Amino acid sequence: MNTTSVPRRVTQSCLRLRQIQVVNKPSNFSTTSLSLSSAARFGVSLTLLTPLRPHTQAHITAFASGINSHTKRMNYSGVATPERCYVDFCLIPVGTASLSVANEVAAVQKLLKESGLTYTMHSAGTTVEGSWDEVMAVVGKAHAVVHAMGVGRVQSSMRVGTRTDKKQTAADKVKRVEDLLAEDKK
């Protein structure tokens, strides 16, 4: 996906919903192809008419702050990672003499306990919650712990989730579904 296609979609959506107004539009400027980068290139101003949803506002702000005024290319060095995340990962030692991975899993669980992060082990992996940097670091350390046990190759399968609209833990997500199921029993 190129850097202008996402903002164009967001900007067009905002135009349709009458959330933004185009100001200082040259006669040869078409709003049907409006993107934040083309607006910046032609000196067009966009005026916010209604509050945007938080994720839309964050996307527009992140994109607009990354536009390099000389080259009109996105500068990704200023894009921050989300504050919090959860990672469901399954670490797989490759090439061990045993089919069992219980010793390696136990070593990783000890690391997770020592990390102080919230985690839940399940039959097919572990879910870890916390700040993006801490969670990603502990997954890397899990690899290092298993390598230190003499395993030459480690693969991980991960699913990463983030939310910016509200703070929600893995336990909150499970409880929400359990509450819905409890309502069905009534």
Quickly describe the structure.
With about 190 residues, this protein is an alpha+beta fold. It contains six helices and six strands; from the N terminus they run H-E-H-E-H-E-H-E-E-H-E-H.
Structure description:
Belongs to the UPF0045 family. It comes from Coniella lustricola. InterPro entries: MTH1187/YkoF-like, Thiamine_BP, UPF0045_domain. This is YkoF-like protein. Pfam families: Thiamine_BP. With about 190 residues, this protein is of the alpha+beta class. It has two domains: about 5-80, no CATH class; about 85-180, 2-Layer Sandwich (Alpha-Beta Plaits). The chain is flat, with a radius of gyration of 23 Å. It contains six helices and six strands. Strands 4-5-3-6 form a four-stranded antiparallel sheet, covered by helices on one side. The termini are far apart. Strand 4 and strand 5 (about 125-130) form a beta hairpin. The longest helix has 17 residues, at about 130-150. The protein is about 40% helix and about 20% strand. Residues about 1-10 have low confidence and may be disordered.
